Amino acid sequence: MFINLSNHPSTNWSAEQKDTAEQLYGEIVDLPFPVVDPAGDEEYIASLADEYCRKILDLSDGMPVTVHLMGEMTLTFALIQRLQTVGILCVASTTERVTNETPDGRKESFFKFIQYRKYTQL
């Protein structure tokens, strides 16, 4: 199972990104990344991380799971620590920004999926 915990539902991903996720990790399950109160303190982040760790463990129901985790940095960091402690692989998607300049001088950007990269300590 591949839990997509981000602000980008898999229904909006490119075919390449979806296919890669399914081939490497299995069925995709979307779990929206929560709105994080910018005024929240470290205890607030810890509580949210605990809540989402429980949600992920409930969703996985003991099956192997990988979590695609992209969102507010302090919550992402706290959640990765918790998930890795219980043996859950966490990954980020990498993209290449492609920018085109239009005839009227505007710039349009889109992001091309490249790969999933494991969160690891180096």
Overall domain count: 1
> Mean pLDDT score, rounded?
95
* N-end to C-end Cα span: 26 Å
Low-confidence stretches: none
What share of the residues does DSSP label as strand, in percent? 25-35%
Estimate percent helicity.
Answer: 25-40%
Neighbour order of strands in the largest sheet: 2-1-3-4-5
The major sheet is characterized as: 5 strands, mixed
Structural class: alpha/beta
Shape: globular
Compressed to H and E, one letter per element, the order equals EHEHEHEE
Tell me how many strands there are: 5
- Helix count, DSSP H or I runs of 4 or more residues: 3
**How many whole angstroms does the radius of gyration measure?**
16 Å
